[in-house]
Amino acid sequence: MSDTEQLLCSLLKTIATEHDYKDCETKLQSFSTEAANHTSQLHHITLSATGKDDLKLFAKSAIVNENIRAQTQFEIFETEMFFYSELLKQFQEMEKHHNVPTEHRLATVKFYGCNREHLKEILVLEDLSAQGFDIYDRLKSFDWNHASKAVTELSKLHALSIAYSKEYPEKFDALYTKLHKDIDNIKSFLQIIINKTMMVIKGENKVKVGAFLQKVQFDEFKKFHMPSRRPVIAHGDFRASNLMHRTREDGQLEVVIIDYQMLQISNPIVDLMYFIFTGSDEEFRAKHYHQLLDHYYLELCNALTRLDVDSNEVYPKEDFECELKKIQPYGLIISLLLLPMVTVDDGNVRKLDVTDDINDLAINPNELAATRLNGVINDYVRLGVL
């Protein structure tokens, strides 16, 4: 048994004691989602005890080696443990204090415990898959039902962060440092990915994208993440693989946001562009792009109102539209960087080794990535960005 497995077993014993699962039987099944997760080993866990319902748990144990961590300097595991153990509790207290109806509260997964030891981090949560939830197929463009529901949940997260900034301004300001993600160290890695994706761009659009990238240099790219008129606690990796969904018996869709490893203080438009352009195809955006943006702003206003915050005061529509115009090009850049990873076949995912560095994660775009990417570029020509 590895050190991490021993730590997980020890953590599960603590959880069993805390929840009165005496002399329980523990079943552990490790699995991988391949391309949907590059940073963790995943585990389905069942705790069984006489006279009690089985406790279905889900655990993530870190697999990112020290070499890659030193290159990225992203404290992704610490960030996610902070969200579930501290920030989420404060969000839930705010929802309770403002009498937000249960159906309008942020849908989240229950936190059971964690191990914070460096390189051996473990996070234990409730197992949503045991309740009928599944991850949306990342190889398919999402439909309106899934996209609108996901954006509704995103609006709740952003609204809570805005309310948090008003109620606890000092704590919010401290998050600028705590949640900071410095991408300077991965500049060469990002350039490698760009070079690979540029090879599949069609015709004269390659020249247009090249000219755009010359204008939007690395320092300009970083500015997209800088909050301007309304900073929020952004998810930072808001894509289909980080959402779980199920359809209830009454036909209503439920969506739960997961994987808060890239949480950061940023611009709300960043999460929107990230979601739309990594998870949809050209046909979906032709029908729903502007509709989805309007839906987000409406749901954000509704969520703020339920938290007793005046949306016209903290984030009027003209501010949203101004930021949208400025941040919109981010969707093009994030497509160039992420679509090869989002659409990669499971069989082509590189297994991380202790000697790997960040550049080993660069993926050659497949046919689906090329199709999606060229569709994004067509959109940005129509939007007047290219």
From TrEMBL:
Residues 123-306 form the CHK kinase-like domain. It comes from the Eukaryota. InterPro entries: CHK_kinase-like, EcKL, Kinase-like_dom_sf. SMART domains: CHK. SUPFAM superfamilies: Protein kinase-like (PK-like) (SSF56112). Pfam families: EcKL. This is CHK kinase-like domain-containing protein. It comes from Parnassius mnemosyne.
